[in-house]
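May I ask you to comment on the folded chain given beneath this request?
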Amino acid sequence: MKYCTRCGAELVDEAVVCTKCGCAVGPVVVKTFEIGKRFGVGLVEIILGAMGFFYSLMGIPDDKARLVACTISMAVICVGVATLLWEKHKTQGKAVLMVPLILLTCVVVDALIGPPKPPTSDAGKVIAFVQETKNGSQKKTTDVVTKVMATTDDAPIEITVNVAGTDDHFLKTAIVFEYEEKNDKLGEELRRRMPKYRDILINHMSSLSYKEISDPAERDKIRKDLQRIINASLPTKMGEVQDVIFKRYLIQ
């Protein structure tokens, strides 16, 4: 392909006279600048699209957002490839290249992401998720996860202490610990340490004032303090006491 040196009109290679201005055609002039510019633009589009694709695939946690971002990135790559091949394929080339590549990208990314997995949950939380059935349809299911608890009810710590700051009041209580039933080792360790815990609880409860032990609002704080003290004495890998229960709580 060549161009008129006078008016710049595009001419066929066999032309000897410009069909637009009538000027005699000289040597073939190739617009190398436009070709180089087009090559640079196409290369930049491919690089940016590739960067966006890998970032979307590795850095976006949400499946749907990742699929959309990867598809857009692949579309940019397709535009870059079409730009490099513009001279040969022109507009039809863009459509021919972009449509199948975008569809292929959707299939590949969807395969990499895989089917949705039901999320895990904490105790007592209800998880609703969509699960594929055998016939390919979808249904909404509900999964309820709860912790099964056990207690040291067979070996309560019974203590009687004088109320701090008084001469005629005392507190009589029985305390049990609650823990996960599957953690047998923790249950055994709690029972083995009962004598030590009895001494700890006596010291703590005897330091409380009459107002503290008689106020119902303060009782929950006492339970939390006891739970913290017991857990602090346990080895880290052993697990934790989930709650402290007053089996009996009598003030006289």
Notes: Confidence is low (pLDDT under 50) at residues 120-145. The chain has four domains: 1-30, 34-113, 120-145, 149-251. Residues 149-251 form a domain with the Tetrahydropterin Synthase; Chain A fold (CATH 3.30.479.30). The chain is about 50% helix and 20% strand.
